[in-house]
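Listing S7. Sequence submitted for prediction.
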Amino acid sequence: MTQQFAERATNVAPTGARNAELSDLVRILEDQNEHKMDVVVSASALRFREGNVHVEGVESLITEDGVTEVDGIYRPTAVADEGIADKLRIPLAYLRRMRAENVPLLDENVNTWLREEPERRFMLRAFRGDSGPGMPPAEGVARALLSDSYKLMDNFDMLLAALDGVKQSGHPTRVTGCDLTDRRMYVRVESEEVAVQARELLRGYRSPFDGRSGDELPMISAGFVITNSEVGSGAYTITPRAVIQVCRNGLTQTKDVMRAVHLGGKQDEGVVSWSGQTQRKTLELITSKTADAVRTFLSREYVEAKVHEMEAAAGKTLDEPTKTIEHVTKTLSIGTEAKDMILSHFVRGGQMTAGGVMQAITSTAQTLTDADQAAALEALAVPALTAAAAHG
């Protein structure tokens, strides 16, 4: 399995991975935890200078592990810019244009709106930069600007709680791939021991990657994907995901998702630190919910029912496949570049049916290097099946 890792700067924790092994994801999350800084600040403590977030006048946190210096310079990610635009009600397209073309104007706009409500409070999620002894603090990364009532449910904690839930379910599984972006964590889990035949769904289909036939290997495995966002881009979710063995296409069933949202009470100003009891209760709930979801999603009955639902539409022959794909991609707001890739995968798949459109979307998703885009496209595969069958 290929791996791609992204690091925002040499002195800040790595921020990304695509198709990574579980051990690699754990290593990255542990490194990120060492650099994390979450602080509730008033607008009066925030300033923009040269397009960066400056935190000023916030009391340091002293613990047995040392002193956490909060004041410093934090370079916003694209996700943080989205949060800044949202919280200050600045049109995002305008903020992006100012960042690209006129940074002094960006500073002036953000600072003006921060001064309008100096007592308003936000949660700033950041990575602290490393610096040597006696050196000034290194520039950090501003990951997100959120509500001060945002509930911290961090990737590493969620991952461990979810894996504990998988273990408690008693089902043999394996992690088949992990992605980490500035927005989300994705962990794909599969149980090849819970597999069903799907001859009708895969009749006439060929893998666009190696040409293997769905008629020769008509099996679909049960699985699910664990997703979490630390920066306000979504809840903690477990979504059922069937895996087609001949090509490794994933079929996510988003309507059956289990979720836990990041909403809690307002936090006090200063560096945020969960109490042990609060954290323990939240993680116990996540573990329990995960175990329940796994028992459902990894049952043969569940997978057979979903395959039967898809087979009803998948066999619909398409009279004009190109026009159908045009209709489906327009209906689902899929861009031109992805549409062209889907059409190419559809032709190579050799399945001139509505099911072939679904397969083309999921196989295209596998080839995307952006994990968020890949997950979003894969989630459209089942709706695309319905749209293609209806269009004919």
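Caption to Listing S7: primary sequence and predicted structure tokens for the chain studied. The chain has 13 helices and 17 strands. The two ends are 36 Å apart (CA to CA).
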